């Protein structure tokens, strides 16, 4: 067995529950023991008993600082003086930068060029040198390796390192201490560090517990490796925190040994889960942080009747992206609708349509009056009305009332 204090971790390294317990001792008082609570509403929606671990409440808003700190404390004095380097889409970067700053260790962080601004700026705010390189995480890895060799920096790997994996596994210790009845864990997978550490710790404490992984169908690398197939990766995903084209060697082995299955979710599933967590739990998560709930909703039959633990692994989402997701979620829920209404192009018709809508309690958010770009006959016009409504039944009520008033109307479903 290779000790987790080694400066480099070979692919043959193992991680045990004792490594995780030692990591918990090192991290005590340095990271938050975040709440793990039962969600009655999400349980009713999904058909499973849902328990949420709020890792988005860490100081850096992500679980990643657990593994980063556990690896940093293992540095030799010479390594601390030379400094460290990490490659990350954002959360591992912040974890390394924050704790390196606390320890007085120089840090260089290599990030893909399209990493959300909020993650770049927060990482820079922790005193790290930021290098933006490449389109994806895997592209950035190339520049990271070059800089590490050129400057003699110690790599703090985001997932394929035994100390990092052990640090992430401390989440499972806390979850099962708080909610020992959990019998299934559904965990987001990028490179596999989180699911590997969690599986090692959870199954040592509770051997019968099931561990399932989740990936976005845009970046299904671990899913493909698990299934023994080949699948392409996309250029981008809402869940950029798990957008990894090549899973780790250590993590791939642990996943194959300990994870029951890896499930895929779509971008739409992740958007829906983000909105649900915001509306129901009043908590903000990024795409990766919503992956577990997305899987529960997408694969309901897989979790029916189980006591499922979900890790809200990060909350670093760009506010403009969140605003778009909320608006799109309102459309899917029927709370925001766009109607096309045909009217005669004479004074008073627009006011008549607006009066009908208002009388039924719908609020007009936007209205456009179109004469030229329409197939309606001359002396007619088309209104495009964006309405705030109570839901699909309310939309139908408005459409019916408009039609009964001689104003042909239809819902624009995009």
Folded structure, characterized:
44% of the residues lie in helices and 18% in strands. It has 414 residues and is of the alpha/beta class. Helix 5 links the parallel strand 3 (84-87) and strand 4. Helix 3 (64-72) crosses helix 8 and helix 12 crosses helix 15 (319-332). It is elongated, with a radius of gyration of 25 Å.
Key descriptive features of the protein:
414 residues; alpha/beta; 14 strands
Brief overview:
Helices cover 44% and strands 18% of the residues. The chain has helices spanning 17-27, 40-46, 64-72, 77-82, 91-103, 117-125, 137-151, 162-178, 193-205, 221-227, 249-258, 267-281, 291-298, 300-303, 319-332, 349-359, 392-404, and strands at 36-39, 49-53, 84-87, 107-111, 129-132, 154-155, 184-188, 210-216, 261-265, 307-311, 336-344, 363-370, 380-388, 409-411.
How does the major sheet shape up? Answer: 6 strands, mixed
Helix content: 40-55%
Distance between the termini: 57 Å
Structural class given helices, strands, pairing? alpha/beta
């Amino acid at each position: 067995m290779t000790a987790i204090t080694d400066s480099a971790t070979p692919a043959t390294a193992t991680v045990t529950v004792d490594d995780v317990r030692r990591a918990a001792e090192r991290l005590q008082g340095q990271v938050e023991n975040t709440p793990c609570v039962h969600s009655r509403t999400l349980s009713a929606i999904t058909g499973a008993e849902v328990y949420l671990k709020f890792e988005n409440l860490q100081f850096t808003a992500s679980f990643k600082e657990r593994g980063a700190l556990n690896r940093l404390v293992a540095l030799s004095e010479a390594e601390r003086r030379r400094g460290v380097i990490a490659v990350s889409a954002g959360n591992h970067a912040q974890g390394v930068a924050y704790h390196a700053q606390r320890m007085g260790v120089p840090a260089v962080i290599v990030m893909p060029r399209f990493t959300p601004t909020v993650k770049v700026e927060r990482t820079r705010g922790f005193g790290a040198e930021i290098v933006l390189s490449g389109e994806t995480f895997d592209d950035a890895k190339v520049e990271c390796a070059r800089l590490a060799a050129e400057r003699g920096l110690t790599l703090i790997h985001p997932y394929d390192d035994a100390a990092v994996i052990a640090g992430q596994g401390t989440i499972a210790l806390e979850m099962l201490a708080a909610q020992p009845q959990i019998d299934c864990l559904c965990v987001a997978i990028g490179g596999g560090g989180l699911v590997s550490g969690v599986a090692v710790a959870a199954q040592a404490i509770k051997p019968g517990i099931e561990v399932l992984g989740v990936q976005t169908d845009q970046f299904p690398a671990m899913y493909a490796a698990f299934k023994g197939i080949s699948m392409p990766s996309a250029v981008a995903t809402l869940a950029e925190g798990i957008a990894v084209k090549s899973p780790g060697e250590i993590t791939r082995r642990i996943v194959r040994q300990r994870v029951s299955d890896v499930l895929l979710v779509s971008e739409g599933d992740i958007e829906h889960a983000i909105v649900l967590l915001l509306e129901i739990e009043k908590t903000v998560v990024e795409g990766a942080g919503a992956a577990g709930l997305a899987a529960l909703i997408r694969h309901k039959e897989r979790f029916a009747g189980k006591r499922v633990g979900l890790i809200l692994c990060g909350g670093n989402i760009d506010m403009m992206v969140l605003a778009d997701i909320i608006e799109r979620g309102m459309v899917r829920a029927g709370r925001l609708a766009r109607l096309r209404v045909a009217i005669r192009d004479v004074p008073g018709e627009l006011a008549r349509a607006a009066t009908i809508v208002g009388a039924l309690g719908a609020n007009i958010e936007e209205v456009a009056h179109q004469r030229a770009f329409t197939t309606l006959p001359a002396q007619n016009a088309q209104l495009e009305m964006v309405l705030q409504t109570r839901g699909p039944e309310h939309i139908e009520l408005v459409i019916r009332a408009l039609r009964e008033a001689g104003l042909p109307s239809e819902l624009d479903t995009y």
